[in-house]
Please model this.
Amino acid sequence: MRSGKPEFQIKIAKERMEILIDEAAKRAASDPALAKRYIRLLKRIGMRYNVRIPPLVKNRFCKYCSSYLNIGKNSFVRVKKGVAVVTCNECKKSFIMASSVRRRKAY
Ligand SMILES: [Zn+2]
Model:
């Protein structure tokens, strides 16, 4: 392991990130500020344990303002040159979906 962290810690970190994104999803509609807090926490876990945020988790929040992204509600996806680009309505910024690059040929 390049990171020097034990394997079990990395596994726990990933699990915690998944739990946090699920909690953020549950609160996003009623309390967006709390959802943001969960997402900031999740990002910090990734940095502390030097773990990449799983693509399924990463695609669900805005990388700039940490808003939980509800596609169709506060964000939208467009396919540009076979790559899914998400635009966040909260901060009006857009970024490429983490999992779309590898699956480019599927579109
Ligand atoms: Zn945003």
